[in-house]
User: What shape does this take?
Amino acid sequence: MSAGEFIPEVTPSRECLDIAAYGSPSTVDSYIIKMGPQEPEDEFPTELCPPKYHSRAKIDNFKILEDLTMGGNIAGGVNISCSGTVSGSTGSFSVKPFNIPHPSPDKEGMRLVHACLEGPENGVYFRGRVKNREEISYPSYWKDLVDWTTITVNLTPIGAHQNVIIKRLDEDKIYLQSKGGMPIDCFYHVYGTRKDIAPLPVEMQKDEPWPYT
Assistant: This one.
């Protein structure tokens, strides 16, 4: 072997058992080498096949023990199961189902499947019951989260027809009024549209870039 000659190390083996990784955690944030030696690029012999790294991969199962940070999209028809927190800006899905362990004691081992509601807005809500009062106050954070001019209210009287109406509303409260001033007892459901983010582009061209990353 002459000085400077590069000979890749190849050790044929019939040992086909799985082996566990060992060593110290790497602190280098780079692609994983797929083929070829890890020589400095300016020293790699030009007569050899150039090295390749993993930019695409297909595996059956992928398990993350720490954190997973992504800058792209997740596509496909596979299931994603997470026992931690999933966070992000938005996603693009044809349906939005999710499941949780079934809450009924007599259905142990089963899952309860629900799906997210859909609508043409970034809507939020709160609900409750108002009794012997004529006002409904918004949650404290709504002032900075919701455009109060988009607020709508549903009222359901309890026990008797009280002819309850929304007398008016403003940035702080919803004011109620009943016929003859009779005591108010009703359920309420209040909806509003978020003002801290841009409105949804409800209709888009099929080749229009997806605005959320």
